[in-house]
Structures are given as structure tokens and as C-alpha cells.
Amino acid sequence: MSMIKSMNSKWVVALLAAFTLLFAQSTLYAAPASQQAEPAVTEYELFLKEKYEVSLPGQATKGDFIEAVAELLGAEATGDEAAFTDLAADEPLYAAAAALYEQGILKGPSIKGDQPLTNAVAVSIAVRAADLEELAYTYPEVKVEAALKSLPLASGFTKGHVAQELAAAIDTGLLPAAYHASFQPGAAASEELAHTLLGKVLETKGQYKQYLGYLSDADILSKLNHAYASSDIIDEPKLQKLVNTALEQELITGYNLKDSRFEANFIDSLSLTYGHSDLTHAIQLIGLLRSEGLDAKLQFEPKTSAFVFHPDWGDPGENAVLIDNGNYIVYSKEYDLEFEFRNAQDKEKFETVIMAYAKKDEADEQGLIAGSWWQPLYFSDTELDSYKLITNNLITSPDSHYEVHPFSLNENSEKVVEGFKAIDPEVNVTPYQFWVDVPFFNYLNGGST
Fold it and tell me: In principle, which of 229, 275, 304, 392 could form an S-S bond with 234, CB 3.0–4.6 Å?
């Protein structure tokens, strides 16, 4: 949807067509990343609950923690039955314990799953789950002693694997500095520490959020410029063969192609996605949101828009391919900006700002940021009162990290999916509904604003 200048332009028709088928929460962070070393504990807790349905009780047992770690890692036992001295194969904890035992995260033979989770045990399991075990065991005693100086430990606690694992947890940040002053190995692990260690395991394994920074960071525009310059037209022949055939058959008029490796993985209830093509627009949008008192985590997700272009519309440009029916498929470099706001109120306020300063209602309208569109595109995976439901007929492949996103009205989704299946019976299509802004919804229904 790049180069949108006026509603009379045939380019507008072509580019917009690409999409036709196509706490009560508390504040999760109080300062930008440059001012806050660690995410607030509630941020980890909410992430674990929303993404994995994992929530530990106020005083967790070792068994609770074992089950949570197994769930996060997707760990399943594949070998012979583990011979635990205090856990039978028909007990509820056995499957998770056996899976972690097989991976070397639990040592056995005694599990003691019903005992309170202690600080030392939680850290040891987290270190092994985060694949830091080998690093820990390289620590000589003198290095362990140096690392543990920040903890109020009894003298002599510098030998053995537990001390090495604790030292590695400190040096790698798996055990954040906020917990050092009160850390006692044998004390019961607090709910906050247990959730934090689980969150840190996900970070180390690359399963947590990824983002450029916060809107309020001093270097956020530099990072955004670099991310945009590093992106390009995406080429994925296998998936594009399928959806380009659908374009030729006029089953759809466009689609978006994205790389799942850039997915922000934000908390759904606090996040919004905003699509555009113009870098200047993105830079000004960040300034606009900051000027309105909004802060958020920001991730840049590159995407390519593909759409049908008719030859009588003019020159299709260099990123165009002639198809059998005489039309062209044109590819446009675009992006999605993914925001995770501090709270639900800020997420709701986003639309007010866009409607006032980033939505075009007249051809020569003044007082808008550069590159504003007639139908701005932003959407949420959770319900917002003023938004409308549409469908993303998501196409994925087990052989690729690329995804195809053809949007459609809900009532057209079944026909779109059936059409894809007719072209390729093995195609993996997962339709799901999400909430989009009203102007874009009106466009899908044939409206102009």
C-alpha cells in the first residue's frame, strides 16, 4: 500500500487491493529500556500466563517448577522410563520430570517434587534449562567466590555444582541483581523469583519478546533506520507459486509475505500492529506518539505486499512480473510496526492519535504526518470496542520461516481457503479472526474512507 497519494490515482486502487482478501492490567514497565535494567516481574508473569498458560502459586513446590519448565521447553520423554526413587510412572509429575531428566536438567534419582521450591534449586534448574550448565562447570573456586560476593552467603559456599550454577546465573544475568541482596540458597523461592527465572530461561532460549527498543529510547530512530535499510523484497518461490496462482485465478487480489523470525512475540492484550511502506512516516509516527505521551516497545517486522496490477493503469515499475492473463503481479517493500503498550488505556489511545494526525480525509489535507493513508491499517489480536473483525487466512510451511497473510472479510474466508486447497491440497491454511480499524474494514466492504 505504498505511494498512496489520492483516491483518484489508479495506483491507489491497485495497492489497496492488496488487502481485499487479504490492567485492569497494571503497568508492566515504568521506564524505557535505557533506564530500566530488567522487565518488571509482572511482565514475566503476564507473558507466561498469556503465551504458555503457566502460572505458579504463591509458594511453589519443586514439582510445580519442574512442570512449568517442561511446559516452556515443550519437553517430552522419548527414551526408556526414568527410575526415580520417589516418583512412580503413574504419578502426575512423572512425565515432566522424566522429560527434564532425559535432557539432563534433573539429575535424580530422587525428585522430591512435593517439597517447597528453594532459591538454590530454582536457580540450578533454570541454569540447566537455559543451556548454561557447561559454562557453569568451567568456574574454578576462585571465580565462583568472586561472582558470589554480591550475595549474603555463609562463608565456604564456593564449592560444588550448585555454587558454580549460582555463579553462572549471576554473571549471565539469569539471576537479576534485584535478587542478590536477599538471596539465601535454602530459603523458599518467592513467586516473583520463580516467574523471573522462567522468563529468563525463555530469553536465553530465544522464546521471549524481541524488539528494537522503546519509543522513548534516545537511539530508537537510528535502530529503525537500520532495520528498514536492512530489509528488502522477500522472495519465497514455493509459497509465492501458490498465492500467485490464486492471484491469476482472481481468488484473491493481493497478499502480504512476512518472515516469522522477526515476530515480536508481544503480549497480545497490550499490543497493536501498524502497517505502512514509508520510512519517513514511521519516523514521524514515533515522534507523534511520543508527543502524545505514549511509550511502547517497538519491533520492526519487514514484509512484502503483492497485488494484481492492470496494464492500463500505467507503468507497474521494476518489481513487477507479467502473468498469463496479461496483468502484472507487483511487489512492494513494506513493514509492520509492532507496539506493546504500557497498559490497555495507552493501547486504546493509539487510535485517537492516528485518526487525528495520520488518517487522510481530503486530497490536500494539512496537519497530518508524512505519507498518511486514506485507510490506515492497524489491528489487534484482542478485542477493542471500536474495531471490526476480519480474517487472516494464514499460510505457513514446515519447510520455511516465511508466512503468507491474505486478509479477507469473515464471510469470504471459507471460499478463499477452499480455493487455496484446490490449488494445493497439502497447503497449510489457518484462518483466524482479529480486530482491525474501521477505515480499513470499510475499504474491504467497498468503502473509500
Answer: 304
* pLDDT digit string, tens, across residues 166-208: 999 999 999 999 999 999 999 999 999 999 999 999 999 999 9
Query: Phi/psi at 394 (nearest 5 deg)?
Result: -65, 130
**Of the candidates 208, 275, 212, which has an alpha carbon nearest to the alpha carbon of residue 16?**
275
- H-state helical runs in 260-300: 279-291
Separation of alpha carbons 74 and 62, rounded Å: 18
Phi-psi region of 206 (alpha: psi -120 to 50; beta: other; left: phi over 0): left
Buried b (16+ CB within 10 A) or exposed e, 243-259: bbbbbeeebbbbbbbbb
Measured CA to CA in angstroms, residue 243 lies from 2, 251, 256, 262, 417 at distances of 20, 9, 10, 22, 11
The model's pTM is 0.85
Is residue 239 classed as helix, strand or coil in its secondary structure?
A: helix
Cα 195–71–53 angle (5° rounding)? 65
What are the φ and ψ backbone dihedral angles of 195, each rounded to 5 degrees? -65, -40
- 232 CA to centre of own chain: 21
Q: Are 147 and 164 in contact (CB under 8 A)?
A: no
Q: pLDDT, tens digit, for every residue of 308-357?
A: 888 888 898 888 988 888 889 999 999 999 999 999 999 999 999 999 99
